[in-house]
Structure formats: C-alpha cells, structure tokens
C-alpha cells in the first residue's frame, strides 16, 4: 500500500476544502423561492462579516481588549444583529477559532501532498501548523487566548475535532503498511497533538520564535522516528530519513540551521494552561 496515495484519496486538496465552504444561495432556484434564498444569503453574509471582524480584532487586539461594540462596528452591523447570530462574545470567538482551525487543517493536508510515508505526512502536517502559528493573529487566537477563553475541556475538544481522526488514520495506514509499530493509535494521536500544542505554546513565549519553531519541529520528527519499525529494511530507511533535518524546513526565513542534537532547550512557558 502506498501511504501517500491512500492519504490523498482520503482527504481532498486544500483548495477543494475551501471551495466546499462557499455556496451560491440563488443558483438554480425558482423565482418563487428566490426571496427566501436571498434572505438566507443575507444571513450568511452577516455571519461572514462578524467572523471576519472577529478574526481581525481577536487576532490583533486579543479577546479581552475587544468589545461587542467593537465587533459590531467592524462588521458594520448592529449589536442586535450580532447577538442574533452569536448569543455571547465567547460564542463568536469559538466560531472564529473553529474557522481558523479548519483553515490550518486544509493547509496541513496541502503540505502533506506528495509525501510517501506516514511519518513524512505527519511531519509535514505538523510543521505546517507550526509555520501558521508564527503568524501573530493565529498565534493569539489559537494558542494564547483559546485555552483561557474556551476552557481547557472545550479547547481540547475543538482542537481534536480538526486533527485527531486524520492523525489516527495516518497512523493506521502506516501500521498496515509495516512502517510503524503503534499498538494504540488513538492514544498516540492524542499524545502527539498534546506535544504539538505545547510546542506552539513554547513558540508563543519565545524571544526567538523562528528558532524555537525549528527546535520543536526537529523534536517532533524525533518522536515520529521512535515509532518506526527499525527491525526491517523499510523501518531502517525511514528512521534514517527522519534523523536528517529536511532542507526545505525553514522556507527562506534566514534563521541559523538547527539540528535535533544542537537544538536549544525550549524557553519556559510563562504560565500554564
């Protein structure tokens, strides 16, 4: 079984995911029903405007510094219209969080295209996430504010909603192909997600986030290498490949190269979840 092909067949390209989220509410609708469809389109447009306002203000100013009035003003709607769609500011933040997570998942799928092994699929997907949270707005929404605003239980539930099943699927495909030895894919997937999230928090608290990103990415690849079945030829090759830092890991950021053995200790996080 070729894991890369199986993965691509399971999940659509990122562009398809994005297109799936758009809808033409009046295409092919009979005239008698067009008025209702136009109303549905207006509702969708108002919701989209509120989400865009939330993405901008929560990402730029943070949840605590953003008021309901600020959000309504930015979306060019009344506060009553805002409350019609979202009963609380927290509910709007949750919707923004979910939208951002869906975008990150689409980007991870795209980054994994062409990967020929389960470990490389995971490594590329995780590194895509780390690259994304270098963006200040996404970092503030997903890493800094979300655990406190949503609460740890809800944050974990939503965090797993967009990646857990996919990671489990990759692990199972890799086990079936003889690449990995994983007895409990569900538990391993949750542990990997936890390590990734904690790594992103280290980046958020780092004075050198790009360097910390590379150290976290290298450490994640070391974790993946520990799952490889090294007793057979396929496992030995995969383990050797994972031991080397990929050349395209930094995407022209100009940082000094960091290898797993040279990676600095991640800076301590300021505070806890």
Task: Give the arrangement of secondary structure elements.
Layout: H1 3-10, H2 14-20, H3 31-61, H4 68-75, H5 79-85, H6 89-112, H7 118-132, H8 136-150, H9 152-161, H10 164-176, H11 185-204, H12 209-225, H13 233-242
Helix pairs in contact: 2-6, 3-4, 3-6, 3-8, 6-7, 6-8, 7-10, 7-12, 8-9, 8-11, 10-11, 11-12, 12-13
Summarize the structure.
This protein has a domain at 3-24 and 89-242: Tetracycline Repressor, domain 2.
Distinctive features:
single chain, 273 residues, mainly alpha, disordered C terminus
Question: Can you describe this structure?
Answer:
It is a single chain. By secondary structure, the chain is mainly α. Helix content is 68%, strand content 0%. It contains 13 helices and no strands.
Through-space gap between termini: 40 Å
Major sheet details: none
What's the number of extended β-strand segments? 0
% residues in beta strands: under 5%
What's the SSE pattern? HHHHHHHHHHHHH
